[in-house]
Amino acid sequence: MERIIKVTGKGKISVKPDLIRLLINLEDKRETYEETVEQSTLQLEMLRDCFAKLGFERADLKTINFNVNTEYESYQDENRAWKQKFIGYKFVHAMKLEFDADNKRLGEVLYALAHAPVCPEFRINYTIKDVEAAKNKLLGKAVADSKEKACALTEAAGVKLGDIVTIDYSWGDKEFVSEPMVRNLAAPMMRSAKADSYNIDIEPDDISVTDTVTVVWEIRCP
Length: 222
Known about the structure:
With about 220 residues, this protein is of the alpha+beta class.
């Protein structure tokens, strides 16, 4: 019978965010499908114009999701029965804009959004540029923790730790994101002396992430 020991290791890292991800949501309603699609394109170009004035490429504003759905409203007929009436179409366009974590740059972007001819909803996330490197470091720490625990257990049991048999990891996506600012803060912010920016003074906390790895080791007699 194969003698094994299964140990789950836990890794934890803290990384300083170096990237701002602005999540933008545009939506509007029109009577016809053609008008709705046309309006979505028009509002998108207005947003691109705003960011282009700040030096962004038009392609920097990237689509996450776009859809056009039919819209209905409920009403009661003469018999007080509830029915639905078609009122038109609604588009929802979810986008993102990413740039270096810099308060001055963020102030310019928020000012541009607050004074844009369209009124999108938005959310500000802080994240990191090199996610894969952080994930690899996290997994390395989890495996090292598993080995440390396995060594302690086998030493206490008077046996030796052998080779790795299997490593079990879920491969789920880990989010390296923090959100220190509530959405739509641009409106109440005080303007700086500069006429096209807001004063932003934010120092986001480090992003802490944990993950686990289960490792099966051989057990050898001393």
